[in-house]
Amino acid sequence: MITFDGVGHRFGDRTVLRGIDLDLRERFVGVVGANGSGKSTLARCVNGLVRPTSGRVVVDGLDVGRQTARVRRRVGFVFPDPAAQIVMPTPAEDVAFSLRRAGLSRSQTTARVEETLERFGLAGHADHPAGLLSSGQRQLLALASILVTEPDVLVCDEPTTLLDLRHTRRVAALLHGLPQQVLMVTHDLELLGGLERVIVVDEGRVVADGDGPAGVATYRALMEADAC
Ligand SMILES: Nc1ncnc2c1ncn2[C@@H]1O[C@H](COP(=O)(O)OP(=O)(O)OP(=O)(O)O)[C@@H](O)[C@H]1O
Ligand SMILES: [Mg+2]
Fold first, then answer.
1. Which residues contact 2 (CB under 8 A, 6 or more apart)?
2. Model confidence over 62-108: pLDDT tens digits?
3. pLDDT, tens digit, 9 for 90 and up, residues 50-65
């Protein structure tokens, strides 16, 4: 469970989040809003990448500001650009790197790496240069390297922006099949429409909080109003 309690944030004199109060208990929560509305800033508060200038965020009973290291071990974060996240030369090495603190033997690590790459459709690319993977494959690898650590909560900031429809659906199916709580920022209306809960952010405020169709309708109305 993720709680935002009166969260506000300023970058210098620019106010980016204003009085965010949320209790997120659903297994899959979407966040949508205009460019620059504060979605990534809000998502980054969940694992302490951004420290709110007021209020607090609590994840599964842990105060993110005070217990940041513990929170980071429990919250996986997927960035919009997978290149920012892939640290090793090949997919197999990248997934193995994520397991370096798992206390596994070499053969256990190899087995986990193989089964993880298989699950993410990357078994045929285990030893290929990661830089030569397609954008979709890189996105899947970034997800694989995070999920292999078995976080309790997964925060995804636009995990499908680089992907074609087939890869988008593959990532969506993967995310929906996870046992973890998922908080996903996206502009993809197809992904949002089916969610139980969607938060709409505008100018740093939560302006709608309801089911997927309601969230999509509010977002469309906001975008159409701005276009006039
Ligand atoms: N590190 C930073 N320093 C200063 N300003 C920042 C910083 N990070 C974000 N901002 C500003 O905060 C505002 C909100 O940014 P944020 O990245 O949260 O928006 P967003 O809703 O994720 O947008 P997008 O849909 O384009 O990803 C923007 O005006 C942005 O320029
Ligand atoms: Mg963003």
1. 22, 24, 29, 46, 57, 58, 59, 153, 181, 183
2. 999 999 999 999 999 999 888 889 999 999 999 999 999 899 999 99
3. 999 999 999 999 999 9
Distance 93 CA to ligand 1 centre (A): 32
Residues 6, 201: Cα–Cα separation, whole Å: 15
Lining ligand 1 with CB less than 6 A are 11, 14, 16, 33, 35-41
Question: Locate tokens 């949508």: which residue?
Answer: 32
> Which of 16, 53, 157 has most ligand 1 atoms within 8 Å of CB, for mutation?
16
DSSP label at residue 78 = E
| Domains contained in the chain, CATH given | 2-85+153-227 (3.40.50.300)
pTM greater than 0.90 (yes/no) = yes
